[in-house]
Design a protein that fits this description.
Layout lengths: L2 E2 L4 E3 L5 E4 L4 E7 L2 E6 L5 H16 L15 H13 L6 H17 L13 H14 L20 H21 L27 H12 L6 H14 L3 H5 L6 E2 L4 E4 L8 E4 L2 H13 L16 H11 L6 H14 L4 H8 L6 H19 L9
Antiparallel strand pairs: 1-2, 2-3, 3-4, 4-5, 6-7, 7-8
Helix pairs in contact: 2-3, 2-5, 3-5, 6-7, 6-10, 7-9, 7-11, 11-12, 11-13
Length: about 375
């Protein structure tokens, strides 16, 4: 007999098997202290049971590889090799996360000559500190493809690049600690801190400018202009990340409950987002025009619309925007409509209770509060 769990989910009489209110089955498997959700891609319980067994077997076969040393010497290169093996074979990690970790490993090896053959016992806190200072001050800024100048006129690694490399160093040396070869991780000394990215003040298009951007894309004359305009609106109306939106199929759109289920998410946990009126109009139009498509067809017909966005924004005189800026536009519009920060944060898939949203959009809340306070009056005639 099934019992209700958290809203939207129903547990079954089978361990690790859950059914969403939209009818699809999901597996929830623990890896350490983390609960990992995985869509089983079916609404049939008998099929879900078979897929569940295969999924659990796969997860159990992905346990981290232990450090094995035969000659008594553990080099940093060996720990890196094992670190790479562990995250590459982790099926629960998003491909983008794996690429990010790989980039961090390569940056450490590139900016610290000789570390690959260094015995981990010889890596000290001062050595790590000196490497970190050098990385932050001497690394060449990132130059985008086909660009002649760096994206930022600054010297050294950006906060994101620095943290990427530091995380790779820390995780690799964690394996040395686990093996007993070193007592503590020198890269985790309190004197070596992660960089804090500087949050830029958002420059987003107004509602009028956004409408003009959509129209400019639709009338651009390109073969995929209509699909690009649909993606632009979908991202702005849902607050979904690009990869999350690209995996939405028609079976994930529930018009009866006005919800869209995002199955593939950044943190691996499916979530529902509400269908606002403008999004419903868009989706109903798309569904009518493509009524021949089955439930497994993806809603969006293009994977990216960045090029369209940049060109259209420039054409209408609006700030240059990207996929992620449309996510910001959703949050901004929701906040201006009076939706509280924790609710917006949950819809966007943040798991920090709204802390990040407050950092990014706090000034908008303050501006909204100032406007709302103008309505407060002690006048007896009001």
């Amino acid at each position: 007999m099934s019992t209700a769990t958290q809203p939207g989910w129903i547990s079954t009489n089978i361990k690790n098997l859950y059914r969403h209110t939209n009818g699809r089955y999901y597996a929830r498997v623990s890896r350490g202290s983390k609960k990992m959700w995985k869509s089983l891609g079916t609404k049939l319980k008998s099929v879900a049971e078979k897929k569940l067994d295969a999924h659990i077997s796969a997860v159990r076969g992905q346990q981290p590889v232990e450090v094995e040393v035969s000659d008594g010497k553990l080099t940093f290169g060996k720990t890196v090799e094992l670190y790479r093996l562990n995250f590459r074979r982790d099926a629960e990690l998003a491909e983008g996360t794996k690429q990010f970790r790989e980039a961090g490993v390569k940056l450490v090896l590139k900016t610290w000559p000789g570390i690959e053959s260094t015995n981990v016992r010889n890596i000290s806190v001062p050595m790590v500190r000196e490497w970190a200072l050098r990385l932050r001050s001497e690394t060449k800024p990132y130059v985008p493809n086909n660009a002649k100048t760096p994206s930022r006129r600054s010297k050294g690694a950006s906060p994101t690049t620095f943290n990427c490399a530091l995380d790779a160093l820390r995780h690799s040396l964690d394996l040395a600690v686990e093996s007993g070869r070193i007592f503590s991780n020198p890269a985790r000394d309190k004197s070596i801190k992660r960089a804090t990215p500087k949050l830029r003040r958002l420059q987003l298009p107004t509602r009028e400018q956004f409408a003009k951007i959509v129209n400019a894309i639709q009338t651009s004359g390109c073969g995929k202009c209509e699909a690009a305009a649909e993606m632009t609106q979908f991202l702005a109306y849902t607050g979904a990340r690009q990869n999350e939106a690209n995996h939405v199929t028609w079976q994930d759109v529930d018009f009866s409950t006005s919800r869209i289920t995002l199955r593939i998410t950044k943190n691996g946990e499916p979530r529902d987002v509400p269908i606002i009126p403008e999004c419903r109009t868009l989706l109903e139009k798309m569904r009518t025009e493509r009524g021949h498509e089955g439930p497994d067809f993806t809603v969006l017909q293009v994977k990216s619309c960045n090029g369209f966005l940049r060109k259209a924004a420039k054409e209408v005189g609006a700030p240059s925007i990207s996929h992620h800026d449309l996510r910001h536009l959703f949050a901004t519009t929701a906040m201006e409509a009076g939706i509280d920060v924790p609710t917006i944060s949950r819809i966007m898939g943040h798991r920090d209770g709204g802390a990040l949203a407050m950092k990014v959009y706090g000034h908008l809340r303050d501006e909204h509060a100032q406007q709302a306070m103008q309505k407060v009056s002690f006048s007896l005639n009001s």
